[in-house]
Fold this sequence. Notes:
Layout: H1 2-21, E1 24-32, E2 42-45, E3 51-53, E4 59-64, E5 70-74, E6 81-84, E7 93-95, E8 97-100, H2 102-108, E9 117-120, H3 125-133, E10 155-156, E11 162-166, H4 172-182, H5 194-199, E12 214-222, E13 230-238, E14 249-256, H6 267-278, E15 286-292, E16 296-304, H7 308-316, H8 326-339, E17 346-353, H9 364-375, E18 380-385, H10 393-402, E19 407-409, H11 413-422, H12 424-428, E20 430-441, E21 446-452, E22 472-475, E23 479-488, E24 517-526, E25 534-541, H13 552-568, H14 578-587, H15 596-615
Parallel strand pairs: 1-7, 14-15, 14-17, 17-18, 18-19
Antiparallel strand pairs: 1-4, 2-3, 2-5, 5-6, 8-9, 10-21, 11-20, 12-13, 13-23, 15-16, 20-22, 20-24, 21-23, 24-25
Helix pairs in contact: 6-7, 6-11, 9-10, 13-14, 14-15
Amino acid sequence: MKNSLIIFAMVILAAVIISFTESRTITGLVTDRQGKPLSGVSVLVKGASAGTVTDIKGKYTISVEQQDKVLVFSLAGYVAAEEKIESRSMINVKLNFEVYDALDEMEIAGYGAKKEKVSMSAPSASIAYDRASFQRYNNNFNTEGYASINENGFKNVKNNPLSTFSIDVDNASYSNIRRFINSGSLPPADAVRIEEMINYFKFNYPEPKGEHPFSVYTELAICPWNRNHRLLQVGLRGKSIDKSTLPPSNLVFLIDVSGSMDDPNKLPLLKSAFGLLVNELRAQDHVAIVVYAGAVGMVLESTPGNRKETIMSAIDNLEAGGSTAGGAGLKLAYREAEKNFVKGGNNRIILATDGDFNVGESSNGGMERLVEEKREQGVFITVLGFGMGNYKDDKMEIIADKGNGNYAYIDNLQEARKVLVREFGGTLFTIAKDVKFQLEFNPAMVESYRLIGYENRLLNDEDFNDDTKDAGEMGSGHMVTALYELVPNGSGESLPSVDPLKYQASKIRHEDNYSDELLTIKVRYKKPDGKTSMLFEKPVKGTNDDIEDASDNLRFASAVAEFGMILRESEFKGSSTLESAAKLAKSGRGEDEDGYRSELIRLIETVKSMRVLADK
């Protein structure tokens, strides 16, 4: 009898333990007030790091524990919602628009005050668009910083046969633009870097073969916004390296915990994003954590990547407060990276911030000199931007550019997963550095050309052969895309020109039999630890295919360029319209497993709707 009681008690105890530890699954759908599915919504367990994001159809699945009480749903441009879990297995949520009443704010709060958030359901949203939301970003109510962009114009081939620039694999501009549009406003023109919009997307470029770590792709068709011109797509595809074979990583997480990070889309999102990255780390990888606010500090000494609970505990305990000693934080992070340097490994700082450096060495020039010095010692830097209102895009772009690294803007957990999980190898492991393009155009075939974007990546022609000149880096599996708008020879268009040269011959040479070549592409690059560059060269012949007959690659890339030129109100947009951009994007969508291309179409349609509302 006694033994039976003991067994019975043990069974009851086991059942109680299971009831408190057993996890279960919750599914659901997240929509706006009109019932339209919302993709990219962060779904988090309140008070924990567990989370997921909704797919392109607005659906989600999340695993919860018995002790979990509340789910939090958030997306830029919408009011966050909380739902009690209780015994529910399905939780559907509708999110309200989040808009700012700029007129009332001017009267009540005054210049520089924090925006008052107003929740509105869809039927009333047109009022908000009319009064405040459908407008350009307004510096009277924000302190966001963007470097000015002077668009590339057309170059006369006779006087400027060479086009030289550094590659750019950053894509922060696209996700930042998405944040603006989801919030119901257009981005400032200088936030629209068209090359970063295009490079946000992957294209069907061939796998690399042979001695070079990348392949070169070209395609030409009639330009969709000016049918008298041609559109040239040039692409690089980097060699993919399996994550398990990547060399060990010596990482330093440099995390901004200043008072400006105390917003839901900043430090809380940052913690969830780093949780995704920590989950990818291996035992041979090491992580140290440095934080900065009014002062800097070491939160975690270099720790093996398989001690995930220790690393995540340090991240979860971070709190925001104080001013922003960003320069001092960078210096401490570099010291820690150098102390634990792994020869032949991936030695990298991952800086996460809104860029609002205001204490110590915070000038753009000072930051630039620091990261330039450290990159030569083999420590690279990746920059992750968060938040809005005081976002400093200009500072973060400089740091990543000069620090041999990448720059991404994280506006939701889905973007964090794209950057830190799906593109983990490319983001953190460099296969080629100082990668430069130089295109030489044949004046017998091309009268003039215009490089679309890359304004802050232009190089002098002589820099192409100068191995001391810094250029962009390419990661494992990364793709780089550039578009040129070409004016064919004999077009009769007026061209930018200079007076005839007195001391040099300017006649076109026909005797070399290059009449069928449109241009020649040259690429220079160095190995990650190399000092001397290598050269790749490829001639390109001309075609006259219509854009409708072009590949998905060129049709979709041209749609992104059209959309970017419309957002910039570019003088070169020609006949571009939102309708034509959407049509091209739909026809070139192709396979879209992750829904990124469908999301672009949704953004174009959203801007169309905003304009309709603003015109009423």
